[in-house]
Amino acid sequence: MKRSELFFNFILIPVDIAMIVVAFISAYYFRIKMEVIYIWPFDQYIKFVLIMLPLWIIIFFLAGLYNYEKRKRPLDEFASIVLGVSSCIMLMVAWIFLSRTIFFSRLVIIYAWLFSLIFITFGRLFVRYVQIFLYRWGIGVHKVIILGNGEASELMMKEIQSNKQLGYKLIGIVNTKKEVNIKQNSKTLGDIESLEKITSSRDVDDVILTDSSIPEKQIVSIIDICHDKKIIFKQIPNLFQVQTANINIASLATIPIIEYRITPLEGWGRIIKRISDIIGSIVGIVIFSPLMIITAILIKFDSKGPIFYKNERVGESGKRFFVYKFRSMKIDCCTGNMYGGSNAEKYESKLIQEKSERSGPVYKVLHDPRRTKIGRFIEKTSIDEIPQFFNVFMGHMSIVGPRPHQPREVANYKSWHRKVLRIKPGISGMAQISGRSDLDFDDEARLDIYYIENWSLWLDAKIMIKTPLAVFKPRKAV
Prior knowledge:
Number of domains: 3
Distance between the termini: 42 Å
């Protein structure tokens, strides 16, 4: 999902809240124009409405009004609005009667129901029209490659080109058959064997497979290419489509279509995880600030050099960033142009060849002679990684996720290893609670890929609960 879509889906909540409040205010003033026996003062009335607002949003979630995965048609969305608003009004009425509250005129509730339907529908239509308007300027538009030939491909191409409000822009078609029959207003980009090269040289958001005759093995290869490049893979389904946990069945205009999700960590999952990361990083910085101050003092007394060490790592989608750590090595042994430079890198390469205890692209030097006295302790207890809460706050990392690795390590990844780059790296993760650096990298990657494909808030919570236990569990000397 594009960031603009996340924004428009998220903005529906404050828009709905505003429309609900406006609806109840309108109902109040509409009613007081008529002769009434008793009515609450406005401040008491609006306080009651604000208290009930969280209930409305919860009901709207349950009614599917914030489901980003399935964009509803206007009539279907209005039906959900009617269901959601009616459910909320009935619960409010039930609360009024059960609590025996001396309430104002019951007609206010009826007016509030009617005005809520009107204003919420209007608010959502306004948001939708703003989104469609921005499509004209290319904002939020999905850039699409159609993979396949024949009638299905031509129908898909026609829908995209004729229906601009869908938010799709056709980049071109990739052939899957030798005998091609494509209309002249399309642009042939190449054949299926060159898909990886095509997607690397162009800004692509979606790849839509329209050819149902492609072997399953080749489809898996296509999905891997798309997921590695953070491209959404969609497919027109056939009658024998296998159901999986990470697919979403929707439609593009009148055409049924399947979207293969990289991870459940999309849409609201991404928003909720980011919010929890911001809150968690602030809490972590506050809680560990005394320990960080003590560690900083000890590092300064123990050896010359800066307190913090910035090391370049590879994050989500291959983006590079600097991870913050407490310095645990002698300054002339730290790699990077700001520290020991090429001499430190040569020394590290020698140590990796002689003392690395891990197989695969990621190294771990046993009994590392570069460590300072305090550095050996803070590395063993993972205190050196506490400053990474600042990386989380800035958005480079998440509290839970695959560990970030250095560019030269990532360069030696196998193709399936690169799946760990599909989400933000984390301070802790499945591998850290299952063996930390004592695991082979292949095992670490498998655990991280499992996390990516099966993410949930509950899984994050379990990992965070188990992390302190893993930190204090004895492991090999460093």
